[in-house]
């Protein structure tokens, strides 16, 4: 039996990402978010238009997407309701946000140098994706239910750093889906992804079919 409802938010379950960027004074900003999806080596983010992260991305054009695992849940929680902006917009005041300058310190996390971008990686995150901004556009301008101004940010991934513990083997470039346990956000609650439900038909073919550039490189 289905029932028609009108939920306050559509937050059906997405991975938590800690975005590291550089503030205007060169210090690091770290922001948790969960409106992110990937296609190929591109990523799309949905961000509050007033956020410090978006200001940094517009100015500098690069960041690191540090994917949180279940082991990072406490650190993510410490960053909840924190913002890097000095002047809090009204909606963040209403939601109870406070300004925090040292986000890494607040979360109890440590910085690690990146290879191709200036913002640091987060050492404690098992997946770190260095990225460059491709495009930033307004989002949801025709949606009367979207309460705050938002933007969509298209990123191109430059470098992928992965903890060996979640790889299928010492020399492998494939992720062990059982070992990788991303932290998920569902209706503002932190959840784990759980185990495999059943074998996927989509996973029967070689993963390399999605990477034709590797085939060209081999030939």
List the helices and strands and how they pair.
Blueprint: E1 14-15, E2 17-22, E3 28-33, E4 36-39, E5 42-48, H1 52-60, E6 62-67, H2 73-79, E7 82-83, H3 90-95, E8 98-99, H4 103-107, E9 111-112, E10 121-122, E11 127-139, E12 150-162, E13 183-186, E14 189-192, H5 212-218
Parallel strand pairs: 7-8
Antiparallel strand pairs: 1-13, 2-3, 2-6, 4-5, 5-12, 6-11, 9-10, 11-12, 13-14
In short:
This protein is an alpha+beta fold and 219 residues long. 16% of the residues lie in helices and 33% in strands. The chain has one domain (14-195): Electron Transport, Fmn-binding Protein, Chain A (Pnp Oxidase, Chain A, Roll), CATH 2.30.110.10.
CA gyration radius, whole angstroms: 18 Å
Helix-strand topology string:
EEEEEHEHEHEHEEEEEEH
Summarize the biggest pleated sheet.
7 strands, antiparallel
Taken as a percent bin, the fraction of beta residues is 25-35%
Provide the low-confidence segments as ranges: none
CATH hierarchy class name: Mainly Beta
The name of the CATH superfamily reads Electron Transport, Fmn-binding Protein, Chain A
Tally of domains:
1
Work out the helicity level.
10-25%
Please work out how many helical segments DSSP would assign.
Answer: 5
Q: CA-to-CA gap between the ends?
A: 55 Å
Question: Which architecture would the CATH scheme give at its second level?
Answer: Roll
What is the molecular shape?
globular
* CATH overall fold name: Pnp Oxidase, Chain A
- What's the overall average pLDDT, rounded? 91
> What structural class do helix, strand and pairing data support?
alpha+beta
Number of strands: 14
Physical arrangement of strands within the biggest beta sheet: 3-2-6-11-12-5-4
């Amino acid at each position: 039996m289905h029932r028609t409802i009108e939920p306050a938010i559509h937050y059906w379950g997405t991975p938590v990402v800690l975005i590291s960027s550089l503030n205007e004074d060169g210090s690091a900003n770290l922001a948790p978010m969960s409106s992110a999806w990937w296609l190929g080596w591109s990523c799309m983010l949905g961000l509050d238009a007033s956020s410090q992260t978006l200001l940094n991305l517009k100015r500098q054009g690069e960041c690191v997407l540090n994917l949180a695992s279940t082991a990072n849940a406490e650190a993510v929680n410490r960053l909840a309701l924190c913002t890097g902006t000095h002047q809090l917009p009204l909606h963040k005041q209403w939601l109870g946000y406070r300004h925090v300058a040292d986000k890494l310190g607040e979360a109890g996390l440590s910085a690690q140098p990146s290879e191709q971008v200036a913002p640091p990686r987060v050492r404690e995150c098992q997946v770190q994706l260095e990225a460059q901004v491709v495009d930033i556009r307004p989002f949801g301008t025709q949606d009367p239910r979207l309460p705050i101004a938002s933007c969509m940010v298209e990123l191109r991934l430059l470098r992928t750093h992965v903890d060996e513990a979640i790889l299928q083997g010492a020399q492998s470039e494939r992720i062990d889906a059982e070992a990788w346990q991303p932290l998920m956000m569902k209706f503002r609650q932190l959840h784990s992804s759980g185990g495999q439900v059943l074998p996927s038909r989509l996973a029967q073919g070689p993963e390399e079919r999605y990477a034709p550039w590797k085939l060209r490189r081999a030939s």
